[in-house]
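Hi C.,

You asked whether I'd gotten around to modeling the 305-residue construct. I have! Everything is below, sequence then structure, no commentary in between.
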Amino acid sequence: MFSGLSAFPITPAGADGKIDIRAFSRLVERLVQAKVDSIGILGSTGSYPYLARGQRRKAVEAAREVSGGKVPLLVGCGALRTDDTIDLAKDAEAAGADALLLAPVSYLPLLDDEVFVHFETVAAATKLPLCIYNNPGTTHFTVSSALLARLAEIPNVVAVKNPAPAAADVAAYHRSAAEVVDPDFSLGYSGDWNATEALITGGRAWYSVAGGLFPRPCLRIARAVQAGDVKTARRLNAGLEPLWALFRKYSSYRVVHAAARGLGLADSYPPRPILPLSSKAEQEILDVLASLGLAGGHSGMEAAK
C-alpha cells in the first residue's frame, strides 16, 4: 500500500467548477492499466481543498468503481476543522478507500500539540490506515522529526509523505526521519524532481504528480530503484528533467492541468481563483512533452526507454 509508485491524478473539472466524473474515471483507468502500486486521489494535485464534501465522495466512488479493488486507493481527507475531516474520512471509508492521506490544513498557524490531537482524533474515527501528508508549501506547517515520532505512535498512522529535499540533503533528511520511527513505518516522498534520489536513499514510496498522467516512465524509475539499478534510475530521471523544470517553473499542479487539457485527456481547468496558464506557457508544456515522447499516444513509452 505504501511502497513503490503512488500516482496522483488531477480531479478534472470544467470552467464552471463541476467535476467531470467521466474524464476522472478515464484517468484512473489509465493508472489501473499501467499497474501503478497505488492511486492517490484528492491530494493537492486532486484539488482537495477546493472541493465540496459531496464532490469528494463522488470522486472516491468513481475511482473505486474503476479500480475494482485491483489497485489500492489512497484518499485525501484534509480539512480545516477536525469534525469536517472526520466526516470526510468516514465518507472515504464508506466509498471504498483503502487508506487515508491527512494533511494538517491550517489558516491560523498550528501548534504541534494541536496537530497531534487532530491526527489522534481522526485516526480514532476510522479503521483505515493513515498517511501523514507533510506539505509545508501548501499547509504552512512542517512536521518535525519530533512530531513525526509522536504521530507514528498512533496505532493506524503508518506512513508519511514528505517533500523530497535536494540530493545533497536527502540522506541526512531521510536518516533523521528513520531514526524516530519503527522500521516498518513507511517513509515516502513527493516532489518529483527530487524523488528519485529520495528513493535511492531509502524512501519506500514515491507520491508522484507526473505519475498521475504519465505512469509508465515513472514506474520505470521506481522499478529500477527497487531492482537496485541506481544507474538506470538516474538516467531515466535525467531524461525527464525538462518536465521537472516545467514543474519548478509553473508548479506541477498547473502543468498537469495544462497537459491534460492540451493532450485531450480531460477538458479540465483549475478551480478559481487559480487561473489557467497562458497559451504561450501551455504551448511550451506541449512542446516539452512532445520532445520527451509523452504526447503521442499519451503512453510515454519513448521517455521510458
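If it helps when you're writing up: Confidence is low (pLDDT under 50) at residues 298-305.

Thanks,
B.
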